[in-house]
Amino acid sequence: MSQHYHADQVSPQGGEGEHDRPLSVSARLGRLQFHYSGKFRLLQLADVQEGPKVSPDTIRLIAAACDAAKPDLVVFSGNQVAGYDTAYERTFRKRRWSTPLDGIYSAGLSMGGALGLGGASLKRSSKTQDGQTAVDRREPDRRDAERVRRQNIKHTEDLVRRTVGLITGPLVERGIPFVVTYGNHDFQCGLDTDQMDAIYREVPGCLNPEATVAHPDRVHALIGSALPSQTAFVCAPGTFALPVADCDGHGVVMGLVLLDSGDYARTGGYGSPSAQALDFLAAVPDLLGNRSMVFQHMPIPQFYDLLKPVPATTAYAVQGYRSFDSRCYILDESRTCPGSYLGEGVSCPDEDSGEYDLLTRSRGYFALFAGHDHRNGFVGRSGDLTLGATPTCGFGSYGPVPSKRAARLFEFDIRHPHHPRTQLLEFGQLVGRPGSHKVYTFAMSHVPTSTGDAVNLLRRPGFLAGGLTALAGLIASWGSTRRR
């Protein structure tokens, strides 16, 4: 798998006729399918991570990447919603197991009120003038608390609906179908994944199947979707598999699997996929009858196989995360593709869930791509599996310099569909200068030493830009502690 990180300026689609039909070839064909040219294109958008006030630069990058790539499908690989945004303070929860009282606190209510215990209830069951005890008054208080909770959830749903509408707007305008999985910040707004899934399905082009029909071993027809001839295998919200057909629409060439990779572990650090999700991964190769590619939010510990331990004094070295924090690392250039870069330690779960062994055991999978680490953009091989990290495409949270925020394009060839080429479509090359000065920027830690023989997938004459900025201003936001 080759990759290239510099694309020439690409002008938007021209001609009025171009907008009269979907930009996605698969949307015209009614299913995810290789074109008669033998190609299939996919665009990954990682860590959009925006609140209700979406940065215009985020929208500009999404739109420009769609125009440049003309993808059959867009994959949102988690953390679309910045659940920690202050707009969600009424329903915010730091962890899934956090008490529902977190949101009530944010709304300014007391714990006593949430429990149906008024201030008077803290005293011994004293009677009021009308003869009622505090115990008698618990039920109305409880009903009031539930009414407030429902109002707050409805308010959050409306805010999330606004964010989703803005970030998917460029796709809807261009007739490009999309799928979504979830990360460690989406749920923090106070909505569960099934609630968010329902909001995404309101948008034309969303292919996320309803989890209420989930029978992992049964094929589910996406009738009524943007691709009426498409089928899927469904496990849970954000966890499902989509077959991609050959040029004639008959045989399955490969599968695309979206996996909810978890959020946080009770023991600390990041979580892992559920046992149900891992069982589903084990079953997919037999269900589809061919190999698949996985998209998820969280990287797995084996991403460290692509890094090289080095002394802390080594140029561009970064410290590992938690279980790996005793050492510093740089990219192992013998294992990674030209143009790869490392901007921060790989923030993977402390515990190995066994996902890597599952993916490689039967050779039922050929690649896994994740987001999560906003400043990492690399691709490499670990055994028979291609692993890739995609940087943030959003401008509402921390990340690399604005010009390096990117979407990732994949191009599959019917002659060797399990060895796609990939390229980052960067803001600096597609759009130019950001329109906003508010962007949380950190230094690029690893600068590639060579550009290699990468290919520009946009099919336009390009130039290989060198001299990446080694040092950038270190700007931290006041809410940074809640973003990780």
From TrEMBL:
Residues 1-22, 120-148 are annotated as: Disordered. This is Serine/threonine protein phosphatase. InterPro entries: Metallo-depent_PP-like (IPR029052). Residues 135-148 have a biased composition (Basic and acidic residues). SUPFAM superfamilies: Metallo-dependent phosphatases (SSF56300).
